[in-house]
Amino acid sequence: MPGSAMIMYETSSDGITLRAALAGELDLADADEVRDNLAAAAQASPCRFLQVDVSRVTLIDSYALGALISARNSAAAAGVTLTLVSPSPPVAKAIAVTGLSAAFGLTS
Question: How far is residue 92 CA from its own chain's centroid?
Answer without folding.
Answer: 13
